[in-house]
Amino acid sequence: MAHGLLTTDDMAFPERPAHERGSMDRDVVEATPRADAILTLARNAFVEKGFDGASMRDLARAADMSVGNFYRYFPSKAALVEALIARDLAEVEETFQAIAASADPMAALKAALRERLMSEDCKAEDALWAEIIATGARKPEVAGALRRMEERIVGRISDVLALVHQVPADQALGRFGAHGRLIFLIMHGAMSNNHADQPSDHDLTALILRTIDWLVDDALIRRPGD
């Protein structure tokens, strides 16, 4: 399927230079199946007890292992945050690659954002991330990991907009970075306010989705230099 001058063979996103990616790729090592299983159990404990409420002992108990052995895999909560972000970013990357390869990347981007915002299954996860974000205000290493996650997601949103608008990949951030960042901030704010114990505000959600749709469309009707 062709998109203007682009074909599906052209649509894999290019790897960004190291200075644009930040240090996430250098910090993350290949996760073993055991480490990934421990991370899943620790995440469940975080969701149940809260990020601050779950001690390292609680996390080790959830993983059915001694505290000393748990520390061999994750020596701190900051290390756990790095691993959680790395795993979520791998899923984000798959989502954006699928968007880029779709017959209509713009519609696919809107649908992916809509699904993420409206998913009832994500409410507990959103509450956890709200706690992690609050922790970032106290712990620079957590704040750094969150900042690198934001940079990657903003970069991928910019890549999709550049793809549809046939802007060279190396100009994506400069051309669409502001749109990508505002979309991220809107999603980020909406999810930070998402709690499993409160009903969804459908009017607010609808307004957020219309705003995001407008931002995506606005990016496409402008020309470089506008």
Q: What does this 3D model show about the protein?
A:
The protein has helices at residues 18-21, 24-27, 33-49, 56-62, 67-73, 77-101, 105-118, 123-136, 140-165, 172-192, 202-221, and strands at residues 2-3, 6-7. Mean pLDDT is 79; it is low at 1-11 and 17-30. It has a two-stranded antiparallel ribbon with strand order 1-2. Helix 6 (77-101) runs parallel beside helix 9. Helices cover 70% and strands 2% of the residues. The chain contains eleven helices and two strands. It is elongated. It folds into two domains: 31-75, Arc Repressor Mutant, subunit A (Orthogonal Bundle); 88-226. The protein is mainly alpha-helical and 226 residues long.
Q: In brief, what are we looking at here?
A:
With about 230 residues, this protein is mainly α. It has helices at about 20, 25, 35-50, 55-60, 65-75, 75-100, 105-120, 125-135, 140-165, 170-190, 200-220; strands at about 1-5, 5.
Query: What letter string, H or E per element, gives the SSE order?
Result: EEHHHHHHHHHHH
- Which of globular, elongated, flat, extended, rod-shaped describes the shape? elongated
Q: What is the mean pLDDT?
A: 79
Structural class: mainly alpha
Strand order of the largest sheet: 1-2
* Rg, Å, rounded: 19 Å
Number of domains: 2
Q: Helix tally?
A: 11
